[in-house]
């Protein structure tokens, strides 16, 4: 699941590894924790960003069945490097010149194409899809031995 709304989300700014505090609305996002009571989940793992750790702890406090275990650097969001904090509109305009379909549903289901397009066209190098995948898999492999 995703962290609650942050200040940068609200300002329509690119946010990957850059940290931004949760908004009041973002802190209320933990109502999702109630829905998780019906699942067999027991543990919460998150990235080490303040917004995800705070969301995880809010969920743990709301749903006593879930226990916050630890945070992992490997679970950080996509690293946009120097694009972090930039206006999303600038990125959208770039994508419109490079991709045929820039609808949310298309981009969300073609993250590999999206990540590599941005990495290739950016004046600064962002994480490629391969780098993102390798990092996340390393984190998941770490968890495999803890469960």
From TrEMBL:
According to the UniProt entry, its GO molecular function terms are: fructose-2,6-bisphosphate 2-phosphatase activity
Q: Which GO terms describe its biological process?
A: negative regulation of glycolytic process; regulation of pentose-phosphate shunt
What cellular component terms from Gene Ontology apply here? Answer: cytosol
Q: Which UniProt keywords apply?
A: Hydrolase
What the entry lists under InterPro entries is as follows: His_Pase_superF_clade-1 (IPR013078), His_PPase_superfam (IPR029033), Phosphoglycerate_Mutase (IPR051695)
Tree of life domain: Bacteria
Q: Name one Pfam family in it.
A: His_Phos_1
The record's active-site residues are 3, 77
Binding-site positions, substrate: 2-9, 51, 87
Q: What is this protein called?
A: Histidine phosphatase family protein
Origin organism is Vagococcus intermedius
